[in-house]
Design a protein that fits this description.
The protein is an alpha/beta fold and 428 residues long. The chain is 36% helix and 13% strand.
């Protein structure tokens, strides 16, 4: 809790069955001030709306704790304790074994460029790096830069028929020369949730390591870096109801082996500071505690009285059930349109996708659909969403990329109904 403030709480739900309890959307939506406007916000994969709890913490830090850390006077000590509490909160959120495995920075792309800069010195000519053509460029571009040290970049491509990353295709690419595989946990266009733990087993079997981009996954499922099997795991808080900030987790022994990116006197043993040149943003870090607070409050409101992680899991389980219903509402409509091509799984029933739904319309530019919805204050989007390689591979660039509708747990069935009403005015 923020000192001197009483953040809003969610009232407990008396139902004992967590699997049958529905979200109280009135209380959920009250946590997000931007939802009080008229816009139907369905561009959540671009950036979620921000919790009041997060904004309150950022404001509180700036107005009461904006001093330099590391001094002996009490205000500096208190500010340092707040920043450390933020790191520990994030460690709990992602299930890190040690809080010094938590590296925070401005954005996923920035963290990936920092990471690959640190890896550069260890690359030997002929080392192989596998990336996918379904990732956001943030998890490709940094790895591609390692070619300057002699690395060989190989692509694990989406099967154009199934629109999936097929494990047999990965097996054909793996060899003892593979040092890294980089992939997305969920595609920001396809919406598909990928089997990263299975991939990790295969990659580790040949002596390689796995880096997972979870930017499109973390808003919809509770992150568990240990269960993922990954060696590095990264996502942005501004996709998960927080500030424009990001986190990179790495296994402690791996991070310790990396060279320092900080001043020459910051040694390689100083985690995570050696990978955070200029240090973290104090107020944004502190704001991130509001994310965990919110998730725990939702879990408690659903009747979960367990640990922080158990409460957060209860919240995300409820989010998933609700989001699957919203996604299926839209997908069912789109399946009935002969001229519409759904780019990704066409059903949410299997649980294999997040509620990010992309499609194209025969004979129509994607921009045309989006501009029509703009007239009704419905926020969706078109383009390649920095997954340009996937859009190019699927031949979708000629239509200006895809139309993307990306939902979050605070969206309602009525909002999806309003979207469908106005889509029906423009779709053939």
């Amino acid at each position: 809790m923020v000192e001197g403030m009483t953040p809003s709480t969610l009232p407990p739900n008396p139902s004992p069955s967590l699997t049958s309890v529905a979200l109280n959307l009135d209380h959920i939506r009250a946590e997000f001030p931007a939802l009080q406007g008229e816009c139907v916000y369905l561009d959540n994969a671009g950036g979620s709306l921000v919790l009041r709890r997060v904004a309150d913490r950022v404001r509180d830090y700036l107005l009461t704790s904006s001093v330099q850390l590391g001094a002996s006077y009490s205000q500096s000590q208190d500010a340092g304790a707040r920043v450390l509490a933020a790191r520990r909160s994030v460690a709990t959120l992602i299930n890190a074994a040690h809080d010094d495995e938590v590296v925070m920075g401005g954005a996923t792309t920035a963290l990936m460029f920092q990471l690959t800069s640190a890896l550069l010195l260890g690359i030997r000519p002929g080392d192989e790096i596998i990336v996918t053509n379904s990732d956001h460029e943030s998890n490709i571009g940094g790895w591609a830069r390692l070619q300057s040290a002699g690395a060989v970049l190989k692509f694990w491509n989406v099967n154009p028929a199934t629109l999936a990353l097929e494990l047999p295709d990965l097996e054909r690419l793996l060899s003892p020369r593979v040092v890294w595989v980089a992939m997305t946990h969920a595609s920001n266009i396809l919406g598909t949730v990928n089997p990263v733990a299975e991939v990790a087993e295969r990659v580790h079997a040949v002596g390689g390591r796995l880096c997972v981009d979870a930017v499109a996954y973390a808003p919809h499922r509770l992150v568990d870096v240990q269960a993922s099997g990954a060696d590095l795991y990264v996502f942005s808080f501004y996709k998960v109801f927080g500030p424009h900030y990001a986190v990179l987790w790495g296994r402690r022994e791996l991070l310790l082996a990396l060279p320092s990116l900080n001043h020459y006197f910051i040694g390689p043993e100083v985690l995570p500071y050696k990978l955070q040149p200029g240090n973290v943003n104090y107020e944004l870090s502190y704001g991130c505690i509001g994310i965990s607070d919110y998730l725990q409050a939702v879990g408690a409101s659903l009747g979960c009285s367990g640990s922080a992680r158990q409460q957060m899991q209860a919240a995300f389980d409820a989010f998933e059930r609700h989001e699957d219903q919203l996604a299926e509402q839209l997908l069912s409509y789109l399946r009935g349109k002969a001229g519409v091509r759904i780019i990704g799984l066409d059903s949410a029933a299997s649980g294999g996708r997040v509620p990010t739904v992309s499609f194209t319309v025969a004979g129509m530019m994607s921009e045309t659909v989006v501009r029509h919805l703009d007239r009704f204050n419905i926020g969706i989007r078109f383009g390649d969403f920095y997954a340009k390689r996937l859009v190019d591979a699927l031949g979708l660039q000629a239509q200006g990329g895809v139309v993307r509708v990306s939902m979050a747990h605070y969206n309602t069935a009525a909002e999806i109904g309003r979207l469908i009403q106005h889509l029906d005015e423009v779709l053939p």
